Amino acid sequence: xxxxxxxxxxxxxxxxxxxxxxxxxxxxxxxxxxxxxxxxxxxxxxxxxxxxxxxxxxxxxxxxxxxxxxxxxxxxxxxxxxxxxxxxxxxxxxxxxxxxxxxxxxxxxxxxxxxxxxxxxxxxxxxxxxxxxxxxxxxxxxxxxxxxxxxxxxxxxxxxxxxxxxxxxxxxxxxxxxxxxxxxxxxxxxxxxxxxxxxxxxxxxxxxxxxxxxxxx
Length: 217
What we know:
The chain has 217 residues and is an alpha/beta fold. The protein has a single domain (16-202), classed as Nucleotidyltransferase, domain 5, CATH 3.30.420. The chain has seven helices and five strands, in the order ββαβαααββααα. Strands 3-2-1-4-5 form a five-stranded mixed beta sheet. The longest helix is centred in the C-terminal third of the chain and has 24 residues, at 155-178. The protein starts with 26 loop residues before the first strand and ends in a 15-residue tail after the last helix.
């Protein structure tokens, strides 16, 4: 059985100059991050991104620190200029079945597989090491290093953070069409006061996470 969670005591990538891709190394850095661990509804998303060494780093930051329309603009630049990228998902039923941590890592694994499948020439031509935001790493076939707050330290992870967040926001806007009783376009499924009140009034929708408590703790 494959392990779904890996925790590394020491990062594989120690030198500071390996935190971003450069023109003088054969190793490409793949940043991986997730979005949507905390909501009461909807999937958790993840993105894997490999940036070129000359990507304009001043565009990047932790996605939570960037306003929505600006995130979309940066997302478009990442898609246009990145060497490779992929998006992965784990839906509400999977979150309920295996828990949110394992589901987040599963979404990360799927994001990297999507990157491999869509950009095979890039993956096949260079060595790739991944930096993962957080304490754990997904079960993928390249060296991985967990790094807390990597989404504010490592350019490729910042880019992955933006890609994961914008992808999830778009799908929650889509779900709002089918579940109009819930203001998904506003709160994106997060446990706001308005969202809790909607659940109390209308009950749970098919995309709500049954294992998450509606009551504020």
